[in-house]
Each structure stands twice: as structure tokens, then as C-alpha cells.
Here is the input.
Amino acid sequence: MTKSELIAELAADNPHLLGRDIELIVGTIFDEITAALSRGERVELRGFGAFTVKRRDARTGRNPRTGQAVPVEEKAVPFFKAGKELRERVNRSKPGRGAGERARI
Here is the structure.
């Protein structure tokens, strides 16, 4: 699901809200999660999961084309760990659902 699909689905489920308001709400939530992660904070959404930032140490990598050693700098990467409820809902078997078909959560 893309961000625009999420906004469209929320708009369809909440006809009393304007589309631009839903877009603002979704954008604000994502912006706040991004800002908290950039400050090194943990973001936990109960029943859904937790976003954290993990640090990857500097290392020596290899150019796959030439095999030449290349220095790779230290970096921070966002990490998501699914919560128990999300894992259970995703792993719940749904008979009749084919590959690539979207489930309604």
C-alpha cells in the first residue's frame, strides 16, 4: 500500500473528513516519526510495532564489479520491529487468498 492509497482508503472510510485534512494528518504522523528517529528516539505504536535507529559501524566493503576494497562509513539506519498483535494478524492463515492479493487488516 502506498501513502496515496492509504489516504484514499482513509478518505473512503471517513467521508466526514476532507481529503486534504486526511493527507495532512497522515503526513504529520510520518513527519513526527521521522523527526523522532532523526533525534535518536524510539517510536512505539502499541499493537503495531516499534521504530528505532541502529548504528552500523564503518567497515571495508568490496566493489562487486572490480573486487576493489572500498571504505564504507559509519551510518544510522531505521529499523522496525513488529509488535505481537501485528505478527499474529499477519501470520493468521486466510484460506482462499492467492499470492500478491492484499489482505484487509
